[in-house]
Amino acid sequence: MSDVLAPTEILALANILDELDYYQVLHIRPDASASAVRSAFHQSSRAFHPDSNRHLDADHRQAIGRISKRITEAYTVLRDPRRRRAYDEALRGGRTRMQIAEAEAGARQQATDELEGKTPNGRRYSAMARTDVARGDLAAAVRNLQTALTFEPANAHFKTKLQELKGQLEEERRKKRPAPF
After folding, report:
1. What mean pLDDT is predicted for residues 56-78?
2. Which of 45, 48, 50, 174 is most enclosed, with most CB atoms within 10 A?
3. What is the rounded distance in angstroms from the CA atom of residue 4 to the CA atom of residue 49?
4. What is the pLDDT of residues 105-115, one digit of tens each?
5. Contact 152, 132 (CB under 8 A)
6. 105 with 123, same domain?
7. Which residue stretches of 27-155 are H helix?
8. Is residue 181 in some structural domain?
């Protein structure tokens, strides 16, 4: 979309804009790097900025305005890794647009799911492990996190926290061992 379009192409693009996902709007691949997203945004926004297209008639300026807003919307979502993951999830569900607040809420929910768990039992045992840690009972925390992982074996946060707790528990055990003669 970075090339200058003819007035008829601008109207055609504006007409199909609702069918395009954010990657298509910015003319990038879904696996594009953050710098590629930024570069595509700057290139597209220059080409479709309303001030750069003041010479067009009212219908075309209105179409340029819609395109420019969608370019900005796409960039705002895709530049933030958390929002981008939430958008990619929505895109797999067939949605091509996502409001910024919705993307942010989705990102927060994904972070919460990762930290606290997605499943009821994963959340339950994770919460019990946090309580155990607060009480200083690392052995119980390890058991509860291991149980949480049986319900959510792919939860990276649970795995990381479990390894940390096992390390702390081993360190405590070493300190309690009597010194050899």
Report:
1. 92
2. 48
3. 11
4. 666 777 676 77
5. no
6. no
7. 34-48, 58-78, 81-92, 100-116, 120-135, 138-151
8. no
